[in-house]
Amino acid sequence: MVYRLQKLPTPQGVGVSQTATVRIPLGPSYTAFYLELTSGEGVPLSTANIDAGIGEIRLIVDGDVKIRGSAAFLRKRALFFGVGAVTGCLPLILSSPWARTRDGEDSTAYGTAGGTMANFTLEVDFTATLVTPTMQVFARQSDPRPFGAHLRIQRYADNFAFTGEHEIAGIPALGPHRLLGLDIDSAGVGEVEVLANNVRQYISTPIIRNQQLLISKRVPQAGFTHIDFIGEQRMDESMPLALNDFRTKVNFTAAPGAFNIYATTIQDDNIR
Questions:
Q1: Positive or negative CA dihedral for 208, 102, 106, 46?
Q2: Which of 14, 71, 96, 238 is the most buried (most CB within 10 A)?
Q3: How far apart are CA 112 and CA 147, in angstroms?
Q4: Do domains 4-147 and 152-268 have the same CATH topology?
């Protein structure tokens, strides 16, 4: 298998308070996108400017939003798995380079060949913070394959104005897919318990979570609590979601108020 680095078509709509759109050519399989972001003078944007200047990023297949997240979260997700970013670049990693086998690495990439996908689009929301921003997008491609199993990142909004236990039900949506991890954008989290069909599958405290993440060579990110279901780097270890009930009980040590939960899954639209 050969990996190629290619420049995508020029984004349309780059500008302050606008949504930039990139029409992604079909045919190859895509393992990563790299957003090169500079000022109007060609100066690479700092991490702080990227986080403040970009609102939400969406990867859309045939009108269905497959990946949704802020620039800050997507950058921190890459860092969590040890994928850093240079000044002026925001990586969106679709494959799983931390997996142990080639099939594992590419099991979450986006195949676009064979007529199984009609439209593939990347959208980037710019805020009012940046002045005359510029953007171009590069893609890391692999050999063509049909659209099948792929990475999906969904953002869910929640609110809890107290400390203590908060039960989160219905996140993520259940079905014939597998859960790789949950990321809660609050650091004030004590014990976490995960139940599948009312059977406890996971329980951790901050110390034990950090120990597990250390063993897995993860890099915890400030302001987040990470619940990782692929600590041994094997995709078949992930949590099956063909369930009747899935709940996460989070003991907040500091009242989070409004917060987000990001659920990362492997899904296959051809399996119903």
A1: positive
A2: 71
A3: 5
A4: yes
Q: Does pLDDT of 258 surpass 70?
A: yes
Is pTM beyond 0.70 here? yes
Assigned token pair, 234: 């094997």
What CATH number does domain 152-268 carry, 2.60.120.730, 3.30.470.20, 3.90.1150.10, 3.40.190.10? 2.60.120.730
Please give the C-alpha separations between residue 134 and each of 44, 56, 137, in angstroms, as whole numbers. Answer: 10, 16, 10
Per-residue pLDDT band at 232 (split at 50, 70, 90): confident
Q: Rounded to 5 degrees, what are φ and ψ at 157?
A: -95, 140
Name which of 14-18, 61-65, 104-108, 203-207 the model is least confident about: 104-108
At residue 235, φ and ψ (nearest 5 deg) are -65, -30
For 43-52, the pLDDT digits (tens) are: 999 999 999 9
What class does CATH assign to 4-147?
mainly beta
